[in-house]
């Protein structure tokens, strides 16, 4: 009886797309559960035919945990454009389509957000962003109302968090940063919002979006786990004489199992930065231009805190026109000052098991950088008070290309505050040369035999402080 009554359902199920795959193709055994249509439109009057979900697969490395495989959603909420502040309508659509729906931002529409939005309630939802979402440039409002966090005074336009969120659509998030770049030139202490604030997000994918003109970092990823960023395109140069500053692509913080891949980043600060308590982070197949490189840190900035960055793997990177390539920056044991808006030192912790492999570099000032004296211009003072944050097990491997003329004939900088707190540093198969043809490096308190460069203790042409934040 039972078996008979089940049979028609089984037949129906076979005719439907495979669950979580959605494109009708059989599961090939590889992880491929995120493509297909985000809302199951066939015979479902609640789906309006948004864009197709991108299929996200890891390459060249596999992450520790498989990429999320979100279920197909069953209803759409299309956000109307009002011509004014669309924040309320956006919030309403997310509330109404939460738990199994998809929010659609229509192509060729520009939505305006002029109100800080707490989006940490998201649960099993797709955001199909085909149009443009632009933030207002009311610098007074955002400094008062933006979400602010203790870490480095980070402020965000919105905070996005929850579980099982899939964002895609080929659209744009525009931070409208020009007003901020110009204001920052007058006042270094203003609170510039981060474009994409992520706080407490799990098992989610953010893919195929353009991020433009962020006032500060493009994204801050905090308190999150198993989140994938794929195919994010970043650019946004200032149109005035005031440069866009501190425009990191990603800053990860108190997060684990984060993958960032296939990004195209044109910016003026770190391409990706691994801030305190970033563990099991995979960054791969990225193109970066004009940046400060892939940076661990800065860490140890705050006395009384314990910062951990470990199990980080950064592979298949094209790094162009950058001040640094692969970099680790740690504050020394005593207080130091980098600039008016950046002081620190004395914090504890560890940087451990970091791999940078298969990099192609052009016009990079230092291809590899380790400093355990960040912010301290007096090297004697740095060795007198070595860092309380250890650096161990760091591998740079298969680096090819050309450094810039800036520090020629040097192309790398390795400065430990003491060998007791800095060990297991390897540089293997390094063929990056300075324009003069040499691969000379500044090496201080290091085991030079593990470094495939020509070490010298002559710092040329003077100490390198390595950019901001
Ligand atoms: C945060 O901003 C305040 C006020 O501008 C400043 O005094 C403080 O040093 C900043 N703190 C950090 C950690 O950057
Ligand atoms: C603020 O943005 C609006 C619209 O995007 C623009 O017209 C205006 O010039 C901007 N203001 C400043 C100070 O940049
Ligand atoms: C992360 O979580 C902690 C603890 O719940 C909270 O205090 C903090 O505001 C959250 N966000 C950030 C960015 O630290
Ligand atoms: C390496 O990264 C480039 C982008 O810079 C990408 O085109 C290529 O497919 C990646 N290789 C692998 C094996 O993933
Ligand atoms: C790369 O950065 C340089 C400045 O460092 C800029 O002139 C160039 O246009 C950028 N290229 C791309 C493709 O963004
Ligand atoms: C990082 O993790 C360690 C160990 O769990 C903890 O003691 C420390 O407070 C954390 N630091 C931050 C900035 O969350
Ligand atoms: C080092 O990190 C990699 C991931 O980047 C991980 O696969 C490996 O197990 C870690 N090694 C140790 C000894 O923890
Ligand atoms: C590097 O910058 C120069 C101009 O400074 C530009 O011509 C070149 O295209 C840039 N490289 C890349 C890969 O964008
Ligand atoms: C650096 O610090 C040492 C030790 O405290 C001190 O003797 C020296 O004068 C300092 N050098 C400079 C240039 O300040
Ligand atoms: C050394 O690195 C180059 C690329 O920079 C790569 O083609 C080559 O296979 C590497 N050699 C070894 C022995 O890994």
Automatic annotation (TrEMBL):
Indicate, by first and last residue, each region the UniProt record lists as having compositional bias (Gly residues).
Answer: 32-41
Q: Catalytic site residues? A: 292
Q: Where in the cell is it found?
A: Secreted
| BP GO annotations | carbohydrate metabolic process; cell wall organization
Q: Keywords in alphabetical order, please.
A: Cell wall biogenesis/degradation, Disulfide bond, Glycoprotein, Glycosidase, Hydrolase, Repeat, Secreted, Signal
* Reactions accelerated catalytically: [(1->4)-alpha-D-galacturonosyl](n) + H2O = alpha-D-galacturonate + [(1->4)-alpha-D-galacturonosyl](n-1)
- InterPro entries from the UniProt entry: Glyco_hydro_28, Pectin_lyas_fold, Pectin_lyase_fold/virulence
Q: Which named protein is this?
A: galacturonan 1,4-alpha-galacturonidase
The protein's organism comes out as Cutaneotrichosporon cavernicola
């Amino acid at each position: 009886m039972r078996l008979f009554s089940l049979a028609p359902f089984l037949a129906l199920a076979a005719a439907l797309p495979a669950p979580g795959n959605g494109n009708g193709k059989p599961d090939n055994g590889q992880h491929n559960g995120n493509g297909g249509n985000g809302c199951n439109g066939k015979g479902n009057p609640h789906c309006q035919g948004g864009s197709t979900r991108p299929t996200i697969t890891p390459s060249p490395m596999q992450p520790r945990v498989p990429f999320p495989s979100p279920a197909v959603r069953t209803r759409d909420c299309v956000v109307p454009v009002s011509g004014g502040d669309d924040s309320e309508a956006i919030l309403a659509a997310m509330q109404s389509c939460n738990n199994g729906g998809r929010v659609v931002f229509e192509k060729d529409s520009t939505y305006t957000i002029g109100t800080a939005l707490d989006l940490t309630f998201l649960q099993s939802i797709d955001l199909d962003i085909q149009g443009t979402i632009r933030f207002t440039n009311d610098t007074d409002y955002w400094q008062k109302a933006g979400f602010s966090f203790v870490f480095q005074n980070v402020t965000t336009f919105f905070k996005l968090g929850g579980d099982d969120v899939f964002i895609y659509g080929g659209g744009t998030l525009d931070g409208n940063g020009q007003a901020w770049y110009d204001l920052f030139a007058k006042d270094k202490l203003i609170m510039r919002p981060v474009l994409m604030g992520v706080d407490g997000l799990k098992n989610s994918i953010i893919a195929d979006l353009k991020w433009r003109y962020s006032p500060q970092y493009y994204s801050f990823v905090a308190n999150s786990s198993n989140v994938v960023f794929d195919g994010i395109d970043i650019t946004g140069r200032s149109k005035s004489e005031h440069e866009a500053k501190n425009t990191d692509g990603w800053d990860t913080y108190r997060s684990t199992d984060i993958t960032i891949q296939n990004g195209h980043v044109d910016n003026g600060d770190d391409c990706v930065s691994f801030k305190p308590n970033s563990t099991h982070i995979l960054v791969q197949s990225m193109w970066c231009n004009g940046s400060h490189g892939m940076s661990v840190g800065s860490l140890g900035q705050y006395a009384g805190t314990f910062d951990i960055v470990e199990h980080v793997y950064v592979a298949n990177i094209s790094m162009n026109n950058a001040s640094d390539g692969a970099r680790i920056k740690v504050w020394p044991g005593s207080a130091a000052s980098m600039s008016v808006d950046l002081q620190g030192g004395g914090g504890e912790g560890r940087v451990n098991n970091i791999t940078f492999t298969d990099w192609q570099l052009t016009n990079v000032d230092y291809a590899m950088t380790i400093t355990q004296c960040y912010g301290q211009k007096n090297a004697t003072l740095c060795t007198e008070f070595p860092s309380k944050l250890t650096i161990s097990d760091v591998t740079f491997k298969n680096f090819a290309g050309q450094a810039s003329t800036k520090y020629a004939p040097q192309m790398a900088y390795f400065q430990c505050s003491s060998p007791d707190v800095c060990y297991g540093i390897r540089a293997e198969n390094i063929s990056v040369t300075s324009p003069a043809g040499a691969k000379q490096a500044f090496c201080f308190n290091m085991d030079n035999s593990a470094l495939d460069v020509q070490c010298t203790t002559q710092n040329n042409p003077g100490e390198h402080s390595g950019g901001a934040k």
